[in-house]
Design a protein that fits this description.
Blueprint lengths: L31 E2 L15 E8 L9 E8 L2 E9 L4 E6 L5 E6 L6 E4 L9 E2 L6 E3 L7 E9 L5 E9 L11 E2 L3 E3 L5 E2 L2 E3 L5 E2 L5 E3 L2 E5 L1 E2 L9 E6 L5 E6 L17 E2 L5 E4 L24 E5 L6 E7 L3 H6 L10 E7 L5 E8 L5 E5 L5 E2 L9 E3 L12 E3 L2 E5 L3 E9 L2 E2 L5 E7 L7 E5 L2 E9 L5 E6 L2 E8 L20 E3 L2 E5 L3 E7 L3
Parallel strand pairs: 1-36, 25-29
Antiparallel strand pairs: 2-42, 3-4, 4-5, 5-6, 7-8, 7-10, 9-10, 10-11, 11-12, 13-15, 14-15, 16-19, 17-18, 18-20, 20-21, 22-23, 23-24, 24-25, 26-27, 27-28, 28-30, 31-32, 32-33, 33-34, 33-35, 36-37, 37-38, 38-39, 40-41, 41-42
């Protein structure tokens, strides 16, 4: 670990800090952190702000770093940074100094991380890919939940759910729990009337979701290597026992959860929203307007969790789903965001969600009536905005003050405002720089409604952290290549990473560590 070039301030008292306990800050996946009192558009510049230090770890950091404030470890309070790696490690660091607090390997004796299955998407090894989730009230001290993939000496692939004590890394609740599942169906890898989950065919690519005491895990594949289908599973957070399972293509194939690492979103009523990858979609609908075989490939879905049981409750599917599926042009490359309640021109409250994928359309759905499928066109969806983005989406947006921020492939970072609960078809502002593959997933810091900053990481041989004025993206406040002599360069780009902002610092994952940024000389 490189030491900080300047003295690092002591931890800020818990009353003035914020937790980041799940992917993109909240279960709506807005990416906004509205309690940032240190970083402002006036002090985030190359003269006052920059790299403080880099924390080294033992593998790629594809999961978003998480932050838990004021945790008592060893008799002292620490703001704790949780970092998971593809080498099957979970670390806890002091978020202010970078000092190691604990390190836990999720491998059992004789195991290694999984190989990459001949797929370049997560390589050279697969361990912890999806962002963990933290419940600071679980167990005696708070718990970190993570899914780890491994391979034993006999060549068997395993997936396990771990619950780790946030103060020590010790396994909790009798874990880890081996992940197995079946679901009624005749689709890929089925036998005797059930589809069987094969741990070797999947990776827990999306972030974990915790709602109402259940940890939900959703699964992507290794490239498009069949057999695979679309699994989501729920496990009790205090028992690690499997509570519920759903396959969204049980009588077909593919339709998995990729989402560029974005966790499924959830509303206050426990409904889960997600974008599905290409796969079988039954264009023959039943009397309720649902696919007659229960296959929802390339759809925007609402999944009910009533009585802790998963069930597809509503959906939207583009009219040209068959054509898109045939050329791998799916929605599931992006993540879903739930928009805070808006009022339309008629005074009605709208519950909306936003998503985009490889076809570069921005789809806005009414969460109460998503639109289902109409082969004649997309007029049944709340809004379909083609042409707003210059490239495909392999990321997810962020939200702040009535504006959606998107970073598509080969495109600028763009701001799309809502007006009367309708999203603009052209951006109100955009960055001057273009983001290469896979685009960027922005995060927002602000102090309530003021001092909004959009943070985004540019993938490349030299990763670049960008900061923009949220009110005008053409005003770049800072990027990590501005300072002379490479002062703020922090590592090789990592395509999945989402920046985390807390307590005056920005944390960015790389292929072998975490870059930590903040005000210099404080």
């Amino acid at each position: 670990m490189q030491g900080p070039p300047t003295p690092v301030p002591p931890p800020v008292p818990a009353s003035s800090v914020v937790n980041v306990l799940t992917y993109h800050n909240d279960n709506a996946r807005t990416g906004q952190q509205l309690n940032e009192t240190v970083l402002t558009p006036s002090n985030v510049n190359a003269a006052m702000f920059g790299k403080l230090f880099v924390i080294s770890v033992d593998g790629k950091v594809d999961a978003q770093p998480l932050y838990a404030a004021a945790i008592s470890i060893g008799g002292s309070l620490h703001n704790v940074l949780i970092v998971a790696t593809e080498h099957d490690s979970v670390y806890a660091f002091d978020a202010d100094t970078g000092a190691a607090l604990w390190h836990d390997t999720l491998l059992l004796p004789g195991e290694t991380p999984s190989d990459d299955h001949g797929c370049i998407q997560v390589t050279p090894e697969i361990g912890v890919t999806g962002t963990p989730v933290i419940d600071v009230n679980a167990g005696p001290h708070g718990s970190v939940y993570a899914v780890a993939m491994s391979k034993n000496a006999g060549g068997e692939y395993l997936q396990r759910l771990h619950a780790l004590d946030i103060t020590s890394g010790a396994e909790e609740f009798g874990g880890p729990q081996a992940i197995q599942a079946t679901f009624p169906g005749s689709g890929d890898n089925s036998s005797g009337g059930n589809v069987i989950f094969d741990p070797g065919q999947y990776k827990a690519r999306p972030g974990l979701l915790l709602i109402n005491g259940i940890v939900y895990i959703s699964w992507g594949s290794h490239c498009d290597i069949r057999p695979y289908t679309g699994w989501i599973m729920g496990y009790g957070e205090n028992t690690l026992t499997q509570v519920t399972v759903l396959d969204v293509a049980p009588n077909g194939d593919e339709a998995s959860f990729w989402n560029a690492g974005a966790g499924p979103a959830a509303d206050a009523n426990g409904n889960i929203f997600a974008l599905l990858a290409n796969g079988t979609f039954d264009t023959t609908l039943n009397a309720g307007g649902f696919p007659d075989q229960g296959d929802f490939g390339n759809s925007f879905v609402r999944i009910s969790t009533a009585n802790h049981q998963l069930a597809t409750a509503d959906y939207f599917t583009p009219f040209n789903v068959v054509a898109e599926n045939s050329v791998d042009e799916d929605l599931g490359s992006g993540g879903a965001l739930l928009v805070p309640d808006l009022t339309d021109g008629g005074g009605h409250t709208r519950h909306l969600a936003v998503g985009a994928g490889k076809d570069a359309h921005i789809y806005v759905v009414d969460r109460d009536n998503m639109g289902k499928f109409n082969p004649a066109g997309n007029g049944n969806v709340y809004q379909d905005i083609p042409g707003a983005l210059a490239g495909s989406v392999f990321s997810m947006p962020a939200y702040f003050q009535g504006v959606i921020y998107y970073g598509a492939v080969g495109d600028t970072m763009k701001a799309f405002p809502f007006s009367n609960a309708l999203l603009a078809s052209s951006p109100s502002s955009q960055s001057t720089n273009i983001f290469p593959f896979p685009g960027a997933t922005p995060s927002i810091s602000a102090n309530g409604t003021s001092n909004g900053i959009v943070w985004a990481v540019e993938n490349g041989n030299v990763a670049v952290l960008h900061a923009y004025d949220a009110a005008n993206l053409s005003r770049e406040l800072y990027n990590s290549n501005q300072a002379a002599g490479g002062r703020d360069q922090f590592g090789v780009g990592n395509k999945f990473i989402t920046p985390t902002i807390a307590n005056g610092k920005v944390y960015v994952g790389t292929t072998n560590g975490i870059g930590v940024f903040g005000l210099l000389g404080h």
